[in-house]
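We were asked to recover a plausible sequence for a given structure. The inputs and outputs are reproduced exactly as logged, with field labels preserved.

PROBLEM: sequence recovery
POSITIONS: 236
GIVEN STRUCTURE:
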């Protein structure tokens, strides 16, 4: 749908149902409202469960505070209930609620964060094996390189080698222990180790929520670090 057609589907700034991408929110004027106070900023970041708004009155808001966002876009106006989960100088980081993410008709992409964490490989089931996992004599250490709500990237030292499509039982040490089943979808030989990309096959709902919270914290940290480094480069 063209922007002209989208405009025809709105009266004033009423919401349109079909929009091409959540990136339509970026660089748009955004009103942030809480009990007894309203301020206006600019949406600067939209990724997965995280929104960021540059706003001069960031010091008037506190972590955990519930707010309502009104985002004025070329396709219409979006009302987003949210919660403040991070603060930086001149900016607020907030939850992008699932109901807002569902308003966009593209396939949902889960943000992948780069991390340096550890975990354990507890068992594996080779391609074609039916219902039987091979238990490790002792839990094998893995180095987690990146993670998302859909999959994980990790390395295993040589000479141990997994095959593509192998199912794995993993224990991820991410502040709290997260157990899951995953399947190898790609591999890349390195020096002294092999990198594996795996997609989750099974994970308990409570563990999914724990993982979501971990990823959100990592996103906030990465975004704050990136801004600080950019500011240092600017003032050199």
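RECOVERED SEQUENCE:
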């Amino acid at each position: 749908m063209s922007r002209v057609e989208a405009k025809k589907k709105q009266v004033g700034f009423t919401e349109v149902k079909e929009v091409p991408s959540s990136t339509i929110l970026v660089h748009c004027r955004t009103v942030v409202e809480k009990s007894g106070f309203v301020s206006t900023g600019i949406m600067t970041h939209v990724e997965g469960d995280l929104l960021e708004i540059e706003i001069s009155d960031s010091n008037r808001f506190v972590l955990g505070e519930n707010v309502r966002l009104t985002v004025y876009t070329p396709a219409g106006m979006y009302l987003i209930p949210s919660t403040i989960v991070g603060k930086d100088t001149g900016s607020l980081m907030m939850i992008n609620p699932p109901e807002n993410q569902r308003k966009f008709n593209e396939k949902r992409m889960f943000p992948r964060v780069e991390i340096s964490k550890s975990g354990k490989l507890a068992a594996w089931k080779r391609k074609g094996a039916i219902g039987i996992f091979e238990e490790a004599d002792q839990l094998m250490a893995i180095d987690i390189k990146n993670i998302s709500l859909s999959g994980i990237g990790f390395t295993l030292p040589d000479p141990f080698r997994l095959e593509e499509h192998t199912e794995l039982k993993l224990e991820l040490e991410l502040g709290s222990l997260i157990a899951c089943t995953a399947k190898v979808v790609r591999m890349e030989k390195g020096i002294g180790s092999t990198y594996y990309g795996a997609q989750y096959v099974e994970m308990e709902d409570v563990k999914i929520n724990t993982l979501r919270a971990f990823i959100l914290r990592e996103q906030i940290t990465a975004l704050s670090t990136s801004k600080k480094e950019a500011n240092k480069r600017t003032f050199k």
